[in-house]
Amino acid sequence: MKQRKKQPQITRQAILEAAGAEFSIHGYAGSGLGSIVTRAELTKGALFHHFPDKRAMAAAWIEDHLSPALAAHWITPLELIGSLDALRAFCRTRCMELTPGDATSALVSLTAETAASDDVLGTALEHIFTHWRAALADLLERGKADGWIHRSIQPASEAAFVVSAFAGFSVTTRAHPEENALRTCATALEAYLETLRAQ
Amino acid sequence: MKQRKKQPQITRQAILEAAGAEFSIHGYAGSGLGSIVTRAELTKGALFHHFPDKRAMAAAWIEDHLSPALAAHWITPLELIGSLDALRAFCRTRCMELTPGDATSALVSLTAETAASDDVLGTALEHIFTHWRAALADLLERGKADGWIHRSIQPASEAAFVVSAFAGFSVTTRAHPEENALRTCATALEAYLETLRAQ
User: Fold this and answer.
1) Which of A17, A90, B114, B194 is the most buried (most CB within 10 A)?
2) A114, pLDDT greater than 80
């Protein structure tokens, strides 16, 4: 009985995981419902039982999968950072890890594709960016209070800049996936972060 | 006679302009051939006379339209820049001008959507990024020689960083098109560019 109760939730998760994998590779418009159900080893009937249409499925995937994945990569780890050297090392690692299939890349490519033409998805995606910027701004604010970030720094501006830079790196990575390109971005980012250091 | 000779070229241009407008709004996968020919006020027959398929049409649009548009925005104007203040002002202007329908945004969204899954389009788009980075690196190299860029700067790294940052701004702009967000990015970018100044 216990297992039967859970089945709808398991099916829903399987659909969202398959949808996310398809969106990450083929984009939103390029992901057909047929290939999503094939990947999930389900029927279209099962999909429509859970979601009225592709957009509702994408919105659920953004909220239930993409948002926590981004938070695990970019928000939770910030709590452990207590120096500019740690921030530099963290950003370098995240930069070197960027791959075309990861959460950052999925966030950016879905935003680039849909945000200008679809208010529902655009708003859901912008919420993730807003949380990401706010978490980074909070860290920089804390760094100012603790004396390792220069007191003239505007945390909100610098956070917006760093998030935009990472969004750009993930696009660059899609077109140009060599390790060397990532290293170049990581090095320039570290040089930029160094300018935030308290003198 | 003269006009009849030119007609195929005019039709080709009309198709590419319509395709570019559709790609910029709906992305590559989201742009149907039907809506492209409707926008161009032509038939699918006319389209297939010029291009075997959508991908060939997209590749032609990237080469004939997107690449020159990007060069006009980002490469040609660099020739006139001869100081860090001029570079800051130029980058600020380009940042404040970013809109979801412009060439930068089209380049970035098309790259985010297709580069990881389509080698032909990915390579064509990466060529544009390569030229953009090279032009900016050349300017920074010239700035070092002329004494307005710090001599410890690595032009290729910094150029890759600035291009990535702009790619990221254009994504942010799609999700978050307020003037205030652009101003925040422009201000942080100027603060970053200031760190390149010769001491």
Assistant:
1) B114
2) yes
| Interval B145-189: pLDDT, tens | 999 999 999 998 899 889 999 999 988 877 776 778 888 888 888
**Nearest-by-CA chain B residue for A25:** B117
Q: Does the beta-carbon distance from A161 to B165 stay under 8 Å? A: yes
Residue B86, SS3? helix
Interatomic CA distance for residues A28 and A64, integer angstroms? 17
The rounded distance, in Å, linking the Cα atoms of B163 and B138 is: 13
Distance CA B122, CA B51 (A): 19
Are A65 and A97 in the same domain? yes
Q: Does any domain span residue B199?
A: no
Same domain, A110 and A140: yes
Per DSSP, A197 falls in state B
Closest CA to A94 of A46, A40, A136: A136
State the burial class of residue B77 (Cβ atoms within 10 Å of its Cβ: 0-12, 13-18, 19+): middle
Q: Can you give the pLDDT at residue B174?
A: 77
**How far is residue A15's CA from residue A36's CA, in Å, rounded to a whole number?**
7
The per-residue pLDDT for range B119-130, each reduced to its tens digit, is 899 999 999 999
**CATH number assigned to the domain comprising residue B76:** 1.10.357.10
pLDDT tens digits, one per residue of A149-195: 999 999 988 998 899 999 999 888 777 767 788 888 888 889 889 98
At residue A88 the predicted structure's pLDDT band, cuts being 50, 70 and 90, is: very high
The residue of B166, B170, B174 whose CB has the most chain A CBs within 10 angstroms, and thus the best one to mutate to test that interface, is: B174
> In this structure, are A46 and A64 located in the same domain?
no
**Chain B environment of A184 (Cβ under 8 Å):** 156-157, 160-161
Domain enclosing residue B25, as ranges: 1-51
How many contacts, defined by CB atoms under 8 Å, are there between A and B? 171
- Residues of chain A in contact with residue B176, where contact means CB-CB under 8 angstroms, are 126, 129
d(CA B51, CA B40): 14
Across A30-184, the runs of DSSP E, i.e. the strands, are none
- Would the ipTM clear 0.95, i.e. be above it? no
